[in-house]
Design brief:
This protein is α+β, with helices and mostly antiparallel strands. Helices cover 65% and strands 10% of the residues. It has helices spanning 2-22, 32-70, 72-78, 80-91, 103-109, 117-136, 146-149, 186-195, 218-253, 257-291; strands at 152-155, 158-161, 166-172, 175-180, 203-205, 208-212. The strands form two sheets. Strands 3-4-6-5 form a four-stranded antiparallel beta sheet. The longest helix is centred in the first third of the chain and has 39 residues, at 32-70. It is elongated, with a radius of gyration of 57 Å.
Length: 292
């Protein structure tokens, strides 16, 4: 703006100087009409310059206002630098903000399970009941279906207990009868009975296998006693597995150290008692077999 005014004044002076030098005879004063016209022209040009400047400023302001209204994204971008610091402060997490508000729920989901010793004692008791059933199947002085029910037979490409292939009954004190569900397995079952330590010799009677049970000699008694001992060991394994489950449950319960030790002693005490029961039942059965 200042340059435009200075340029106009310079042109006016130059015009006056040129008019003065044009007079060759003498220095004459510049006609007032000419100077007045030059000054008027300069004033007009200055006014136009002022008008253009203010119009440009107004247009720029109007353009920015319209831009902010029609395109909020551009307006936001223009003010982003000013708000960057404020944005960072707002984004900063408050103390403890990274804590999960549902921590209490998570803690509740991880709550340790309660330890119930009765559940594991029941498992040990089940092992004793199974042992009593197995020992009851072993004969002492007379034929018993249990002598053959657990005999393993090669059938359908697998080793299967005889009780899954048919039913075993005692016709009298010295005879067993095997009724098979599938008559085609008769030869395989007969071979398994002959090869067993019992020393029985089955024979066919229609769809039934008849198995004579001779008087037990010393060898047969020893074989039956071995079967009793094997049943006892199986029961002991079941009791040990129940103890292991109890110890694992104590660890999961996350009890105080003194309570955990008392619980472990209780489980171990139950284990020892049930193992002794297995041993006593097995020994008693072995004695009965050998005395028959």
């Amino acid at each position: 703006m200042r340059r435009s005014i200075a340029r106009v004044l310079w042109r006016a002076r130059a015009s006056v100087a040129a008019s003065s030098s044009a007079s060759s005879s003498a220095l004459l004063p510049v006609p007032s009409e000419r100077f007045s016209s030059v000054l008027t022209a300069g004033t007009t040009e200055c006014s136009a310059a002022f008008t253009r400047g203010f119009s440009g400023l107004a247009a720029t302001s109007t353009s920015r206002t319209r831009t902010s209204r029609t395109c909020p994204a551009i307006a936001i971008q223009q003010t982003r630098g000013k708000k960057k610091k404020a944005g960072k402060e707002k984004a900063a997490p408050a103390p403890g903000a990274d804590e999960d508000p549902d921590d209490d729920d998570d803690d509740g989901s991880d709550t340790a399970a309660e330890f119930d010793p009765a559940a594991f004692e029941q498992l040990m008791e089940s092992a004793i009941e199974a042992l009593e059933r197995d020992l009851g199947k072993l004969r002492t002085g007379r034929a018993s279906p249990g002598m053959l029910e657990n005999l393993v037979v090669r059938a359908y490409g697998e080793h299967t207990p005889l009780q899954h292939l048919g039913s075993v009954t005692a016709r009298n004190a010295q005879t067993l009868a095997v009724m098979l569900y599938d008559a085609s397995l008769k030869a395989a079952v007969a071979a398994a009975i002959r090869d067993s330590p019992l020393g029985f010799n089955p024979r066919e009677d229609g769809d039934t296998l008849v198995v004579p049970v001779p008087e037990m000699n010393a060898d047969v008694k020893r074989e039956v006693a071995k079967m009793a001992a094997k049943a006892g060991e199986t029961a002991k394994v079941s009791v040990r597995n129940a103890r292991k489950k109890g110890m694992d449950a104590i660890k999961r319960a996350k009890m105080p150290e003194d309570e955990a030790k008392r619980a472990e002693k209780e489980v171990q005490k139950s284990h020892d008692a049930f193992v002794k029961r297995c041993q006593d039942l097995t020994v008693a059965k072995e004695k009965a077999i050998m005395a028959a």
